[in-house]
Fold:
Amino acid sequence: MANGKLSAMVLKDINKLEKNLAKECAPKINKLFKESLNFAMLDWYNDYDPKKYNRTYNFMKVLNTAKTTGSGTTITMQADSSSMSDYQGFDEPPYRGYEKEPLPASLAFDFFFINGEHGHGNWMMHRSIPPFMTVDRDVDDGFGNRVQDIISATMGSLLTKK
Structure:
């Protein structure tokens, strides 16, 4: 085979790989993302045992929103508060001034996930390691280098497909 044809074939394979790699990897990486979210949020819950209220585990609904998409060679991971319910406040306030004040799910997500808070402001009970930090560390190290394994396997699969 002439060098020109071989180069053209290799270039075609590389272009195909570049267009589809992230999209093909996304479902497997999403499993790692959900696993990381789950462990980070459970660590957040387990770090504080509330005495003044009963847990609803509403925050765990964030797992239902975990989504990983891919385009070209870029992976995007996201999770949000859209599956959470707003917090209605205390039915029986533990202290004077803790009257029933609602907390929108979007704000609760920021307080809990980003800041690691159990409560907020006057209602601040405890601060844990924010789940965001735990997930961010997992992303930075490729979920224990498992992402590289997924990429390598997917590259081989895409290059051998005809």
